[in-house]
Amino acid sequence: MDRQLISHIAHRDHPIAAPIDDAQLERLLRRARLRPEARILDLGCGGAEWTMRALELYPEATADGVDVSEAALTSAAGEAARRGLTDRMRLHHLAAADFTAGEPYDLVLCVGATHAFGGLTETLHAVRRHLHPAGQALVGEGFWEKPPPPQTLARLGAEPEEYADLAGTVNRAEDAGYATVYAYTSTRADWDEYEWSWTGSLTRWALDHPGPDGDAALAAARDHRDMWLNGYRDILGFVTLLLRLGSR
């Protein structure tokens, strides 16, 4: 199965697509304190749940969502129609790094998608190109809760310097020219809810679709679960930073 389709199915029961719950997502968006007619950009939007929540909180705002997954964007379009948001949300099927716009944005999101740019620092440089000077960025990134052992790095296909610890992650953001105005650090409970939903949603779909695709989905769910439970659980953390342009 296509990996993008697997990811889309796996996020059905946790559409936020990050180890964050509804209350914290809303708190992060409210802390942005956007102007009424704000322009919002979500780079790597997936099913665009963050985008739609922002539009619901700021009913005069408009948004662009960008993603490479056709399945996720098709789902996002249907959900936007159901929630009456179609007229205020534009979806773009292309790589986040290739997106261009004629006007800057008040809020740029990139949550759990910094890999699209090659890492946190590169993502923040890319975000700056889209951001109004007084705008804000909401960026979700992994960090090491504790030094990862070699076997965990091997399972993740990661290098030790791919992530920093929490303090180092904040420093990386501020070294890129941003000031941190708020953040949320995901808890173990947040992670467990996210991972059990990810693997469970994919497993349920696999059992309902016997055949080659179902077999592939079930194998992906079991491999992911093993990598989490026997690999990065309590080692890989996640923080969502609310940032403004500024010096340290």
UniProtKB/TrEMBL annotation:
CDD domains associated with the record: AdoMet_MTases
Protein name: SAM-dependent methyltransferase
Record keywords: Methyltransferase, Transferase
Gene Ontology process terms (BP): methylation
Highest taxon above the source species: Bacteria
Domain called Methyltransferase type: residue spans: 41-135
Pfam families: Methyltransf_12
The UniProt record lists the keyword Methyltransferase: yes
InterPro entries per UniProt: CFA/CMAS, Methyltransf_12, SAM-dependent_MTases_sf
Membrane spanning residue stretches: none
Entry's Gene Ontology molecular function annotations: methyltransferase activity
